[in-house]
Automatic annotation (TrEMBL):
The modification N6-(pyridoxal phosphate)lysine is found at K346. Its cofactor is pyridoxal 5'-phosphate. Residues 230-313 form the Threonine synthase N-terminal domain. One of its GO terms (molecular function) is pyridoxal phosphate binding. Keywords: Amino-acid biosynthesis, Pyridoxal phosphate. NCBIfam families: thrC. GO terms for cellular component: cytoplasm. Pathway: Amino-acid biosynthesis. It comes from the Eukaryota. PROSITE patterns: DEHYDRATASE_SER_THR. This is Threonine synthase N-terminal domain-containing protein. Pfam families: SKI (PF01202), THR4_C (PF24857), Thr_synth_N (PF14821). Belongs to the threonine synthase family. The lineage of its organism: Eukaryota, Metazoa, Chordata, Craniata, Vertebrata.
């Protein structure tokens, strides 16, 4: 809890006008919370080796992980003592070899006496190599953890078993007769995950010296939280004066200058052996390993992140693989991103993002999440935030704006199914671009945000892909797709692939670029547009021209977008972090609805990305053609990507087509494409449409949670607003009044 005096002082500052940007409340609160870590933090460095002072470094891991050998090297590099718990604590205390003690008292008693010995042990400024069984004793680990940083040497189980075999160790502490070594190692892993402060992912073949270097880097990273900050795409060329922490940007969403947040130093890069470790992991394990590299533990501790990730990617997904990759035809593969609760790729981010958001919440404010959606984002946001616990839901409201005529009937029913006191969807008699522009205007209106903070104690935020916490989890599934292709023998590690993405707001494509930056061998990102081809034209010509460009309704409404927000992050990325340039370009776009990049920048853009578009007829033809040849049914957005991939793919390079939605969400168009006899695809009842579709299409299977949602919300009643900014502001204030108690 924040001190009462602090909260009162913040309210006073608001009244005095000192904190004009009310989102600063969240920033100050989160920094106050994270600054109370028990591990001392050094902000200055005299060398590349971390300075540990009176703190200990505790190396933890299973038997055979190399804790003793690595500990010696780390201690030598730091110039501090090294303590091996077996040799220097247990055998000294017991005055006998550890093996003899185990034989004398048995496994259960051994664990208790081992823990008691550690509870009496005290030292500082040392590297301590724990035993593999120390983490099984809660009291001992609580005692040790207070003295320093616990570093988990995460070694592959197969490597551990091979090492123990070479050491002629066939049983370890706690392993009953008849219990396989693999089973006891799997059992122990939960305890290592429980006590870690930071993880060192050890690849097969890593030397002791390489692991020791990773330990030193992990300790330095943990100590120096200032090394991982975020800046606006419109900042003065990466100036650190306006940098923010991860927990700050999660709550802010949009930067005060109108830009989007990006990591100041780019993405961390994993080496080949680390990626090979991830290839053997499940999707949640891959997600955890990648996100731990991207989220500083001072913002979200590893133990909390693990809890969130495994909750996000579990039984709520219809496929155990979460985001499976399947062979489609020839050298093309489809990554099915629609197995989440709302049958859309947005679930991959929005089952996790609300948990990240809730963890970062300060105690003093309520938050209203504003979302503009072209179809899928809205229902995924409502589902994700709706799954938060009761306490968090009391402080977080969600208001979604969607174009009344710009989503499919099934999408509309999904959106309007989530009507609660603190969550609702409202349609607007305009297009997605108007909804998105209105929300950005609200964020930039200091009079409005100040009024909401003073009157209701409420701060605005967003869950669109302009929010960094929305985009970051999408990096995981692009990496996972490549690892699946490697695991299945389609590519050798290091061989490139292409990724083809139906592109609207450019967040999905940007996530693929970030996966490439982390070390995934993506050759080209192929951006696929429908007839609303602003992005495609820009990547081809370097010209972004919104003048006299009406939005055209299509069979693929989720990419019916003219102004792509994440194009700003893309240009920041390709320009080498030129915030001046990005600010000038997008200021010009706001003013003139037009900008053009230089020829040299266009060449850089096309090094990573190519683009194309397809007509409505080509979209439907792609659905029919694939179904005829393979029996597989694509949705309309996947079909757009397939049609463009056919034209732009290098035939010698495998391409992963991102299937961003289940085909049932767009049943009328899919039925029309399949040209099924005796099928009335113009029926107005969505459930009838899905029944007809299920009768002719068996792969992929019908999405049961989507069916259930439609059965429970067959009427889809909702509020419809005029396309007037002031009307949308009234909806925001009404939503806040319904969600939160008014501040007197």
């Amino acid at each position: 809890m924040l001190p009462v005096a602090y909260c009162q002082r913040v309210k006073m500052f608001i009244a005095m006008g000192v904190l004009n940007n009310t989102r600063q409340l969240a920033l100050k609160a989160v920094r106050w919370q994270t600054s109370t870590s028990p591990f001392s933090i050094s902000r200055s460095w005299l060398s590349t080796v971390p300075q540990i002072g009176d703190q200990n470094i505790l190396l933890m891991g299973p038997p055979g992980a190399g804790k003793t050998s690595v500990g010696r090297v780390v201690a030598q590099r730091l110039g501090v003592p090294v303590i091996d718990v077996d040799d220097h604590v247990l055998e000294v205390t017991w005055k006998m070899p550890v093996a003899d003690k185990l034989a004398e008292v048995g496994g259960e008693r051994f664990l208790e006496e081992e823990g008691q010995a550690l509870c009496k042990f005290s030292t500082s400024g040392s590297v301590i190599s724990l035993t593999g069984s120390n983490p099984l004793h809660s009291g001992a680990m609580q005692h040790l953890k207070r003295t320093g940083l616990v570093v988990y040497l995460d070694v592959a189980t197969d490597d551990i078993i091979q090492r123990l075999s070479r050491m002629k160790v066939n049983r370890i502490v706690g392993q009953e007769a008849g219990v396989p070594m693999r089973q006891i190692l799997h059992y122990r892993k939960q305890f290592y995950e429980k006590w870690l402060d930071t993880r060192v992912l050890c690849g097969t073949g890593d030397t002791v010296e390489e692991i020791a270097e990773k330990v030193l880097q992990a300790v330095e990273r943990y100590q120096n939280s200032d090394s991982e900050t975020f800046v606006s795409t419109r900042s003065d060329n990466g100036s650190s004066s306006d940098s923010k922490y991860f927990s700050d940007v999660v709550l802010e969403g949009l930067a005060p200058d109108g830009g989007l947040y990006v990591p100041q130093k780019g993405f961390p890069k994993l080496d080949a052996r680390e990626w090979l470790r991830l290839a053997e992991m499940s999707y949640p394990e891959r997600a955890l390993a990648i996100l731990e590299k991207c989220i500083h533990p001072m913002d979200i501790p590893g133990t909390e992140l693990r809890r969130m990730v495994f909750r996000a990617y579990g039984v709520n997904f219809a496929s155990e693989a979460i985001a499976p990759v399947k062979h489609l035809i020839h050298n093309q593969f489809v990554q099915e991103l629609f197995h989440g609760p709302t049958a859309s790729f947005k679930d991959l981010a929005l089952q996790l993002m609300p948990q990240l958001f809730a963890y970062c919440l300060p105690q003093m404010c309520n938050y209203l999440i504003l979302v503009a959606t072209s179809g899928d984002t809205g229902s995924a946001v409502l589902s994700g935030f709706g799954s938060l616990n009761d306490l968090d839901r009391q402080r977080v409201g969600v208001l979604v704006f969607f174009p009344e005529e710009g989503v499919s009937e099934i999408q509309k029913l999904q959106l309007t199914a989530y009507i609660k006191a603190n969550a609702r969807a409202v349609s607007v008699l305009s297009d997605f671009d108007f909804c998105q522009r209105a929300i950005k205007t609200m964020f930039g209106d200091s009079g409005l945000t100040g009024h909401l903070a003073m009157e209701y104690g409420t701060v605005l935020s967003t869950a669109n892909s302009i929010n960094w916490a929305r985009l970051l989890p999408q990096v995981v599934y692009h990496a996972s797709a490549y690892l699946d292709l490697f695991k299945d023998g389609v590519v050798k590690f290091g061989e490139p692939i292409d990724v083809c993405i139906p592109t609207g707001n450019f967040g999905n494509a940007m996530a693929a670029l970030y996966a490439k930056q982390m070390g995934i061998p993506i050759r080209k990102i192929i951006c696929a547009s429908n007839q609303n081809r602003i992005v495609s034209d820009f990547i081809t010509t370097g010209v972004c021209d919104l003048r006299n460009q009406p939005l055209i309704a299509s069979h693929s409404p989720a990419i019916d977008i003219l102004k792509s927000s994440n194009l700003e992050r893309f240009l920041y990325h390709t320009s080498g972090g030129d915030g001046h340039l990005v600010r000038d370009l997008f200021t010009r776009l706001e003013k003139d609805q037009y900008f053009k990049v230089s020829e040299s920048l266009l060449q850089k853009i096309q090094e990573d990305v190519v683009a194309g578009w397809c007509s409505e007829e080509e979209c439907l033809a792609a659905i029919q053609n694939v179904h005829t040849k393979t029996g597989y049914v694509m949705d309309t957005h996947t079909a757009v990507a397939k049609a463009v991939a056919d034209r732009l793919q290098d035939p010698w390079c495998p391409v992963v087509i991102c299937s961003t939605a289940h085909h049932g969400k767009f049943a009328p168009a899919v039925l029309k494409a399949l040209q099924c006899p005796n099928t009335h695809y113009n029926t107005s009842d969505p459930l009838d449409q899905l029944r007809e579709l299920a009768s002719v299409a068996s792969t992929p299977r019908m999405h049961q949670k989507m069916l259930q949602c439609l059965k429970e919300n067959s009427r889809g009643e909702h509020t419809v607003c005029q396309a007037d900014f002031s009307v949308l502001v009234e909806e925001v204030e009404s939503m806040i009044q319904d969600s939160f108690l008014k501040v007197l």
